[in-house]
């Protein structure tokens, strides 16, 4: 993948490198961190970009069932389509966590937009037990 296409940016969370400067990331790590940042941010959380983020946080108090899974998958697709133009989302699968009954795993399969380089990222999502 072209480095110019992906670019380089600050690591998330922000930390310093061995020289004391801000650690930068590039290549696939840059895209993966961007996806995690989008999914971890609730719309309205950033004062200067109130629309930025993903609506999965709206479902924290919903039951960990098939209906919630469909809503989560749709929210992830919508957010990544809007906020991460460097990827094409192929599929978002939502599965139960194997050991935690109130957790769902979001398995996001995507390719980078400039070439066919299939990748996936698993993002855990926890609902509040006994609510909803």
Description:
- The chain is an alpha+beta fold.
- It has three helices and five strands; from the N terminus they run H-E-E-H-H-E-E-E.
- The chain has a three-stranded antiparallel beta sheet, with helices on one face.
- A hairpin with a 5-residue loop joins strand 4 (103-112) and strand 5 (118-126).
- The longest helix has 18 residues, at 66-83.
- It starts with a helix and ends in a 6-residue tail after the last strand.
Question: In brief, what are we looking at here?
Answer:
With 132 residues, the chain is α+β, with helices and mostly antiparallel strands. Helices cover 27% and strands 27% of the residues.
Keywords:
alpha+beta, three-stranded antiparallel sheet, Nuclear Transport Factor 2, Chain: A, 3 helices, two-stranded antiparallel ribbon, 132 residues, 5 strands, single chain
**Stretches with pLDDT under 50, minimum 5 residues:** none
Q: Structural class of the helices, strands and pairings?
A: alpha+beta
Number of domains: 1
Give the number of DSSP strands.
5
Silhouette: globular
Q: CATH first level: which class?
A: Alpha Beta
Average predicted local confidence, pLDDT: 83
**What share of residues is helical?**
25-40%
Q: How is the main sheet built? A: 3 strands, antiparallel
How much of the sequence is in beta strands?
Answer: 25-35%
At CATH's second level, what is the architecture?
A: Roll
Our measurement of the CA-to-CA distance between the termini, rounded to an integer number of angstroms, reads 44 Å
Q: Could you state the order of secondary-structure elements as H and E?
A: HEEHHEEE
Q: From the alpha-carbon coordinates, what is the Rg to the nearest angstrom?
A: 16 Å
CATH fold-level name: Nuclear Transport Factor 2, Chain: A
Lateral arrangement of strands in the main beta sheet = 3-4-5
Count of helices?
A: 3
